[in-house]
Amino acid sequence: TPSVDCFSFNSEQLAQKLLAASLNGVYVFDVAAGRHVFVNPQYTALTGYAQDDLDAMEENDFFALFHPDDMPSVRGHIAEIVNRETAGMEIEYRFKAKDGRWIWCLSRDSVFEHGPDGRPNRILGMFIDVSERKRIEEALRESEQRYHAFINTNVDLMFCKDEQFRYRIVNDATARYFGRTREEVLGKKIGRAHV
Length: 195
What we know:
Elements lengths: L10 H11 L3 E6 L4 E5 L1 H7 L3 H5 L3 H5 L7 H14 L4 E8 L5 E13 L5 E10 L1 H23 L5 E3 L5 E4 L1 H6 L4 H4 L10
Antiparallel strand pairs: 1-2, 1-5, 3-4, 4-5, 6-7
């Protein structure tokens, strides 16, 4: 039976087509240069930065694009990959897009290339924009805080029990009713007969 050649292009062509078709932002970070030395079209679409923009940056300019609160974890992440060569490490951070917006990124990075000394000198990374997920998480957190504030400051007895009749949510008024603290009531089956 004749063999069928599934790929009519070489591996470099395949890699270029995969990078161009990827829904993820893809980059190569050069450890010595301290910046991305390759980005795919999706990286540019997500951040606004083309390769020419990044090539014009010094290391300090590039790292200034990371949120100051996230900088220690980003630098630690890079050091961990370089020193331990941990593959597929993930990190979330805020990155300033070219239009000035902060976008939340979820990146996964691995060593891509080693230098003549055998040490990793380039890191391959992929990222997605998780800003919408972060907004939803923050809205839920704020909603939960308002809910707990409402429950805890209410002068009426407010509580919730699970299917085994253990208290899962208890406000201060309920705890005072039993002559106990909220911590002493949570997770317990307590009624007036147990006071």
